[in-house]
Amino acid sequence: MAISDFDLVLFGGTGDLAMRKLLPALYARDRARDLMPSARIICIGRDNKSNEDFLQIVEKNSKPHVSSATLDADVWQRFCGRIQYVSLNAKEPATYQNLVAAMRDDPAISRVFYLATPPTLFSMICDNLSQAGLATANARVVLEKPLGHDLESAKDINKQVGRYFNESQIFRIDHYLGKEAVQNLLALRFGNVLFEPLWRREWISDVQITIAEELGVGGRFDYYDTSGALRDMLQNHLLQLLCIVAMEPPVSNSADSVRDEKLKVLRSLKRFTPSTLAMNVVRGQYRAGHVNGVAVPGYRKEEDANPDSRTETFVAVKAEIDTWRWAGVPFYLRTGKRMADSLAEIVVRFKSVPHSIFAHNSRSTPNCLVIRLQPDEGLHMNLMAKTPGDGMRLKPVELELDFREKFKTPRMEAYERLLLDVLRGQLTLFMRSDELEAAWEWVEPILEHWDQEESDPIPYSAGTWGPAAASALIGRDGLQWREEALPEV
């Protein structure tokens, strides 16, 4: 779908997200000639500075995040020519006249307001845009996470933003949904006949979804300590991945067809009770340790840290879906910082063969499909095969599809794809308001339980796979996390 002319307004245009991700993504799409020559990018900041001064900041803070393989001096100059800096205080309605003066008054031009700001400003910005006459029918608003702190605040965001923009104009972004491997998961499930007959409780033993980071909180302690792993990662990224794995086939790939099926999954998640919470949820906090051989401090010793913090940096959850397709199949979700490796993957493990006819010295392991999201996107299928030579001995082997090796065409980063969809008005990869609220409804009992508890998170050493309790969580079902179950080479 072609992209029409647009004015893209980046609130938080001087911030880290704009410099590291958004502007480099827009440059990449400019280089690919997806943007009309007249399309413009308006970056909002509070400081009074000239456009030339701002472009120097872009040169210093954003250009280094553009891949050197794609950096072209002429394209970069053309891209910078699209950028206009506007000084504006998001809390002061009068300053929005600066933005009015900068934008083109043409209903044929799409207006996109990207709110890369704290969510406390969402309502105020939308109100001020409306007062300035900018919340028009040709406008779209993009909301960056965190989309609320709990169910009540998420509902409030939906209500306040919904006063000025209808649901078809609101793009709640989750960058994991823009990853190539997530798109390929949809293609794998709904573009092939091979897996659909097996994609159910009769054949699947369990599903594991992991997002692990080697990094700590860095200089973001103030943000992270009020968020934690559950709010920062599980409530959005992990649950969205779960929905794509578990959803029923939609009638089409239209936005509401896909989002209707994801909503059904969220509403089918078995609700926690006080007794199941104690059994099925693990929270941890990293202590000092070694990551890749380098000594790193514990969470409470990080820069500007609270030495008494009880914020979790790791969470593991056993989820269950009460539907005919998935009844009895556990979904294990985990995420953490300062882990043994940086990766994001979905592991679909199939049941063992009902009866093995092969020799007792064959090492039989269940078939397993691994969808790797990062660092290298691809698909891996673990099968059993005969080893060469005399006799019938079986050994696990792996079929691998590396997307970078198979497809030589340039790849889009997640924000590139999502920004293109915003500019096209395509909502499929963005959360609907009822999806957002259903996700918060499911995680809120966990948050309430932790608030009422007196205990601290379980400590785990940096550079490991988290607390031993996470292994016990899955071990009670006679299972192991994938890295614990990998066969010896």
UniProtKB/TrEMBL annotation:
Glucose-6-phosphate dehydrogenase NAD-binding domain residues: 9-184
Binding-site residues, NADP(+): 46, 145
Domain Glucose-6-phosphate dehydrogenase C-terminal as annotated: residue spans: 186-482
Annotated pathway: Carbohydrate degradation; pentose phosphate pathway; D-ribulose 5-phosphate from D-glucose 6-phosphate (oxidative stage): step 1/3
InterPro entries: G6P_DH (IPR001282), G6P_DH_AS (IPR019796), G6P_DH_C (IPR022675), G6P_DH_NAD-bd (IPR022674), NAD(P)-bd_dom_sf (IPR036291)
Keywords: Carbohydrate metabolism, Glucose metabolism, NADP, Oxidoreductase
Annotated substrate binding sites: 175, 179, 213, 232, 337
Signal peptide (residue range): none
Role description: Catalyzes the oxidation of glucose 6-phosphate to 6-phosphogluconolactone.
Recorded family membership: Belongs to the glucose-6-phosphate dehydrogenase family.
Record-given protein name: Glucose-6-phosphate 1-dehydrogenase
Species this chain originates from: Herbaspirillum hiltneri N3
